[in-house]
């Protein structure tokens, strides 16, 4: 049709305004009330969910303008697809866009589905657009389709055979499904452009076209919509907006324009009556059902009969996965005289020669009616558990509505119309709900946990929360990637419990401002918060920061979340007024620009902070020097500082060494792994270790560019009476025999505090292990853990250690000889040492050359040892033939 005919056609609609169907497009567009929903888009870690997205009609226009021959607009019911298309057509008719198209043909498949028999596409165009096409237009379009745009609304509503023959000639008769198949497959009208809407579950996109997904309303669109709905009552609009944004259980649904229509309609009615607004989905749809039944002026008995019939239809559609029912089927459900007056609940999908086909206007109300009918229908039927099992995977909200309706406060408005529900069914569901919820919370399946929380949220019963979430519940599992509804349900449970130990949101890839706002009360009550590997925008960071301020959190893990300097500074604002003792910010894309905020946090903002993990950030020398000045402040109580892989050199390590012996530092543990400490840096640290003001007890210098020449100063420090070092990691440094022997001599000092020593991959030789063995057997060493893995010393070298382990003076509890070249030749000495040791608890033997022949002796030795807890044999040369033998000993890991 041409532009003159398109405008009145687009604004013509047989749809009437209903509580469940929404306002018709004609009213929305002609009254300038159109608020465009958004199209979904891919988001990076620094974007909010609605940032930078196109309006839905604009996204379709952009795809067509970019050369897409076909666009499939996909989205759930009520997401604004139909109205967006109508707006697009009005814009074309008014000359605002899509002016490359001379003709636009708009089809509503709900109307076309009633067509029987076959007809040509040309006949269909003339019949469906009768009076809106200039003479000869249809023929010209079919001959030269390049200037035509075909728009199909509700493609999923078209009845199609399982595999219709695709039409290829527009002048030859075919079924409606046949020519649709031809259009979808590209065999019909090549060169024309197409736009079709369909629901997510029924998506049938054009093979070579673009797909635009409807995301619905973001918060600004919702606010504009509510303001327009209550146009003449700003106070009501403000109250409705605030309530919709905070109300438990409405999150995610509010993105649907159709749902917003229902909510605003109910809100308006309740506010006019001075009544409370609903707090849950159950309360909302109870009000919807009350209004629809009252409009019919039914007695209690007739109202129950109608609910029973609607529930029967709802269950039939859920079980059969068929959205519609024929008039004959409706009669069997008991509709009788109701059929002429239930258009508030149902719509006509097709008006065929063999009768009409009806379906529900809303999937949510369909499931609500199924739940209501179960509780109010007195006819015999299966119990709640059997019904839910039958509909598992088909009904998403049935158990949610049952949980709400099982509570008197939630169902009270319905009882005024329907009377009391069947008490046995209410009690039966309640028993199932409590037992299944307790069982779910004992496990670690996050989806089952969240489902339980949703049911508790709908029930709105605090005593139920405390009864179901008992001491056996494992609330420490990860709830990463929650929806807004999940956040609301989790928040409800935690706030009713009064707190939780660990809130784990690991790998939440797009934590939006709305997510953070919803979870804020939970974050204030959680003792530990884990956001490891998560992504969020600056706006979300501000919400999180505000939640942490004044909260109970003692540990926050932001590691691998790519926070960046800007968002970290935002976080620090909230951390200045909290109880945080441990902050983990490893691999957060921080630079020296964040050092000032960290330093301020240590000196004045969070003096209780004891553990700071800042590894894998480009802090650099200047960043560490900034921190070192804070470490010397009188308010800084930091005890552990982990700086692995922070681009540090000797220059900043010297500053750190000075801070350690300043008299104000409380540091007990420092990790400098994978930094360029070198000889100069180690010399500075060695001097500090000999200072009586230095409290350091653990030092990690793995892979720090150390050599044998560095060991003299460190050896002197270890031999000092003032040294308090208990743990020392020098792995992955080229110490060689000379440097290692210097350290061994220092460790011989009576009273040397070192208890744990790691010399993995330090180019050790058998003489070094011989010296270590002598040290362990001498009675003066306090070593309880030793790692010499990744040194090629072979059976002969490690034999010295077996001799030591077997000696009564040896105190070793942990020994790591990974990848040292062990073979079956060492097994007799190894097993003898394990049996003889009075202290050995863990033995690491992985990545060696032990074979099946060694397994019986190893298993027997592990079994015989009363002290040994674990023997790791992973990555040796074992075949599957001996796996069962190792399985018999629980101490073996392979």
Based on CA atoms alone, the radius of gyration comes out at 36 Å
Task: Name the CATH class of the domain at 3-216.
Answer: Alpha Beta
Number of helices: 36
- Remind me, CATH topology of the domain at 3-216? Rossmann fold
The number of strands is 24
CATH superfamily annotation of the domain at 3-216: P-loop containing nucleotide triphosphate hydrolases
Class from helix and strand fractions: alpha/beta
- Low-confidence segments, ≥5 residues, pLDDT <50? 43-47
The overall pLDDT average reads 89
For the biggest sheet, the summary is: 15 strands, parallel
Second-tier CATH architecture of the domain at 3-216: 3-Layer(aba) Sandwich
Tell me the helix content. Answer: 40-55%
Strand content: 5-15%
How far apart are the first and last residues' alpha carbons, in Å?
A: 74 Å
Strand order of the largest sheet: 10-11-12-13-14-15-16-17-18-19-20-21-22-23-24
Global shape: elongated
């Amino acid at each position: 049709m041409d532009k003159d005919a398109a405008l009145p056609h687009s604004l013509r609609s047989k749809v009437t305004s209903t509580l469940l169907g929404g306002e018709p497009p004609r009213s929305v567009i002609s009254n300038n009330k159109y608020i465009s929903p958004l199209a979904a888009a891919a988001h990076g870690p620094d974007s909010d969910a609605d940032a930078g997205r196109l309006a839905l009609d604009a996204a379709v226009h952009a795809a067509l303008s970019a050369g897409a021959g076909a666009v499939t607009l996909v989205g759930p019911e009520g997401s604004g697809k139909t109205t967006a298309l109508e707006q697009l057509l009005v814009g074309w008719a008014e000359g605002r866009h899509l002016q490359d198209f001379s003709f636009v043909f708009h089809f509503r498949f709900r109307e076309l589905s009633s067509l029987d028999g076959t007809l040509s596409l040309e006949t269909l165009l003339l019949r469906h657009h009768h009076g809106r096409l200039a003479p000869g237009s249809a023929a010209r379009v079919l001959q030269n389709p390049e200037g035509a745009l075909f728009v199909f609304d509700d493609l999923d509503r078209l009845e199609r055979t399982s595999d219709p023959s695709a039409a290829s000639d527009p002048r030859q008769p075919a079924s409606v499904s046949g020519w649709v198949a031809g259009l979808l497959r590209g065999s019909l009208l090549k060169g024309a452009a197409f736009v079709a809407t369909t629901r997510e579950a029924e998506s049938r996109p054009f093979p070579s076209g673009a797909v635009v997904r409807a995301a619905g309303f973001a918060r600004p669109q919702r606010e504009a919509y509510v303001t327009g709905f209550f146009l003449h009552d700003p106070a009501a609009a403000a109250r409705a907006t605030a309530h919709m944004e905070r109300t438990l259980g409405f999150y995610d649904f509010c993105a649907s324009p159709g749902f917003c229509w229902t909510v605003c309609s109910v809100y308006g009615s309740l506010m006019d009556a001075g009544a409370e607004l609903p707090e849950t989905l159950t309360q909302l749809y109870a009000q919807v059902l009350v209004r629809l039944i009252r409009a019919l002026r039914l007695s209690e008995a007739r109202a129950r009969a109608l609910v029973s019939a609607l529930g029967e239809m709802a269950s039939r559609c859920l079980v059969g996965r068929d959205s519609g029912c024929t008039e004959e089927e409706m009669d069997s459900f008991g509709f009788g005289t109701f059929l002429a007056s239930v258009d508030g609940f149902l719509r006509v999908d097709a008006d065929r020669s063999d009768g009409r086909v009806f379906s529900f206007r809303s999937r949510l109300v369909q499931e609500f009616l199924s739940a209501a009918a179960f509780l109010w229908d007195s006819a015999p039927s299966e119990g709640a558990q059997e019904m839910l099992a039958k509909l598992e995977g088909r009904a998403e909200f049935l158990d949610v509505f049952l949980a709400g309706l099982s509570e008197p406060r939630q169902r009270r408005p319905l009882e005024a119309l329907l009377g009391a529900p069947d008490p046995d069914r209410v009690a039966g569901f309640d028993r199932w709900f409590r037992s299944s919820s307790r069982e779910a919370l004992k496990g670690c399946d996050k989806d089952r946990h969240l489902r339980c929380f949703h049911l508790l949220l709908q029930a709105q019963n605090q005593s139920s929360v405390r009864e179901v979430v008992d001491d056996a519940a494992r609330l420490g599992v990860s709830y990463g990637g929650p929806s807004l509804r999940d956040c609301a349900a989790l928040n409800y449970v935690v706030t009713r419990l009064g707190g939780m130990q660990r809130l784990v949101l690991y790998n939440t890839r797009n934590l939006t401002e709305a997510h953070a706002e919803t979870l804020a009360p939970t974050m204030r009550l959680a003792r530990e918060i884990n956001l490891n590997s998560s992504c969020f925008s600056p706006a979300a960071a501000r919400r999180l920061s505000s939640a942490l301020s004044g909260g109970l959190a003692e540990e926050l893990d932001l590691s691998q979340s790519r926070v960046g300097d800007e968002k970290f500074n935002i976080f620090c604002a909230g951390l200045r007024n909290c109880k945080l003792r441990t902050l983990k910010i490893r691999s957060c894309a921080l630079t020296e620009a964040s050092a000032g905020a960290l330093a301020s946090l240590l000196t004045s903002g969070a003096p209780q902070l004891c553990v700071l993990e800042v590894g894998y950030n480009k802090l650099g020398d200047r960043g560490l020097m900034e921190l070192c000045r804070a470490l010397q402040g009188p308010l800084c109580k930091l005890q552990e500082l982990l700086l692995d892989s922070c681009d540090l050199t000797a220059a900043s390590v010297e500053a750190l060494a000075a801070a350690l012996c300043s008299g104000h530092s409380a540091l007990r543990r420092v990790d400098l792994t994978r930094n360029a400490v070198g000889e100069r840096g180690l010399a500075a640290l060695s001097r500090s270790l000999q200072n009586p003001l230095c409290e350091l007890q653990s030092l990690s210098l793995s892979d720090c560019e150390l050599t044998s020449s560095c060991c003299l100063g460190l050896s002197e420090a270890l031999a000092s009476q003032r040294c308090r070092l208990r743990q020392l990691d020098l792995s992955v440094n080229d110490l060689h025999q000379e440097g290692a022997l210097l350290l061994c001599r220092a460790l011989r000092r009576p009273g040397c505090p070192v208890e744990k020593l790691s010399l993995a991959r330090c180019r050790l030789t058998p003489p070094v292990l011989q010296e270590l063995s002598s040290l362990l057997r001498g009675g003066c060493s306090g070593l309880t853990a030793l790692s010499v893995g990744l040194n090629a010393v072979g059976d002969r070298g490690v034999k010295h250690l077996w001799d030591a382990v077997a000696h009564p003076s040896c105190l070793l509890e942990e020994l790591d000889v990974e990848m040292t070249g062990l073979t079956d030749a060492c097994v007799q000495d190894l097993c003898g040492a394990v049996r003889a040791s009075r202290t050995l608890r863990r033995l690491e033997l992985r990545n060696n050359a032990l074979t099946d022949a060694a397994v019986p002796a190893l298993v027997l030795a592990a079994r015989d040892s009363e002290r040994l807890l674990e023997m790791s044999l992973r990555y040796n040369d074992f075949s599957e033939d001996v796996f069962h033998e190792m399985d018999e000993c629980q101490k073996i890991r392979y």
